Amino acid sequence: MEKIFNGRVVLVTGAATGIGKAIALLFAQKGAKVVVSTRNNVLGGEAVVDSIKASGGEASFIRCDVSKEAEVENLVQKTVEIFGCLDYAVNNAGVGPDGKRIEVAAISEYTEELWDSIMDVNVKGVLFCLKHEIRQMKKQNFGAIVNISSTAAFSTSLGFAAYGASKAGLCRLSQIAAAECATLGIRVNCVLPGPTQDTLLTDNLTATNPDIAKLFSNMSPMKRFGLPSEMAETVAWLCSDASSFITGHNVPVDGGMLMHVIG
After folding, report:
1. Looking at the predicted structure, is the pLDDT value of residue 263 above 90?
2. In Å, how far are 41, 59, 149, 261 from 35, measured between CA atoms?
3. Model-level pTM?
4. 3-state class (DSSP) for residue 238
5. Which amino acids are annotated catalytic?
6. Is the pLDDT of residue 14 over 80?
7. C-alpha to C-alpha distance for 12 and 39, rounded to whole angstroms
8. β-strands 33-38, 9-13: how paired?
C-alpha cells in the first residue's frame, strides 16, 4: 500500500471499534503516525495501538471524553508533544440510540438527560475538537479535518430525534468551520455513513430487534450494509492531497440511500 501519509500525524476519536478503528488502521497502513482516542473502551483503544505497532507503525493511545473541553485540549496537546504536530483529525466519537446503551424514544418520552447525553458528545464534543484542532493547525498553516456524521442527518428515523438533530447540526458546523478555515490552509469536510456493519450502533440495534437488520440492508439501492473499511477509504481520500480543492462538503457513503429511489 502506498505510504501517502508518510511522516504525517492523525488523531482519531472514537477509534476503539467500528468505523474509527478502521480509519486508524488504514491511516497507519498509509504511513501516518496515529493517535487513538476513546472515552470508555480503553482496552479496545490500546488493542488498536498494539495492532498498529505490530505491523511496524507508530501509534499512541490517549483517553478522552470529548464532551469535556479540558480533556480535548489535553488530547491535542499530548498529540503534539508525542508526535510533534497534528496534520489530520478525524472526529468520529459519537453516540446514538441503540436500544442497549441508549434508549430509542419518541419525542413525547424524551428526558433532558437523554437529549443531553447525545448532544454533549455528537455536537458539543465535535465543537471542542474543532476548536483545539484548528488552533494547532493554524500554527502549522496546514491541516485536514473530517467529521463523521450520518445519513440520519437527512433521513427520518422514529425514535432518533436527538441523534438526527445532532448529526444534521454536525453537517452545518463542519461547513462553518470550513468557511472560517478556507484561507488558512485547513480543509474541513464531513462524511455521512449509511447503515454500517460491525459498529456498536448497528450491532446493538439488530441484536435487540432482528427485523432491523433486514430493514437496514434494504435502505440503500445496493441492498447491503456499508463496511467500516469503505468509510475509512473515503476519510483517507478527503485528507489526502488528491482532494486538495475540496472543503465544506457533506459526503454520503451510503450505497445511494439518500437518493430516495421510488419504484
Report:
1. no
2. 15, 6, 20, 40
3. 0.95
4. helix
5. 163
6. yes
7. 12
8. parallel
Contact 113, 219 (CB under 8 A): no
> Cell numbers 498494539 correspond to what residue?
50
Apex CA 130: angle with CA 240 and CA 66, to 5°? 115
Q: Which amino acid is at 192?
A: L
217/196 Cα distance (integer angstroms): 9
Tell me how far apart the alpha carbons of residues 33 and 134 are, in angstroms, rounded to a whole number.
Answer: 19
If residue 9 lies in a helix (H) or strand (E), which one and from where to where?
strand 9-13
Long-range contacts of 113-116 (CB under 8 A, 24+ apart): 114/162, 115/161, 115/162
Buried b (16+ CB within 10 A) or exposed e, 186-210: bbbbbbbbbbbbbbbbbbbbbeeee
Backbone angles phi, psi at 86, to 5 degrees: -140, 105
> Which grid cell is 60?
499512541
246/8 Cα distance (integer angstroms)? 19
If you write DSSP's letter for every residue of 132-200 in order, what string do you get?
HHHHHHHHHT-EEEEEE--GGGTS--TTBHHHHHHHHHHHHHHHHHHHHHTTTTEEEEEEEE-SBTTSH
Residues 152-171: tens digit of each pLDDT: 999 988 888 999 999 999 99
Nine cell digits for residue 212: 432491523
End-to-end CA distance of the chain: 41
**CA quadruple 68, 71, 75, 80: dihedral sign:** positive
Q: Which of helix, strand or coil describes residue 33?
A: strand
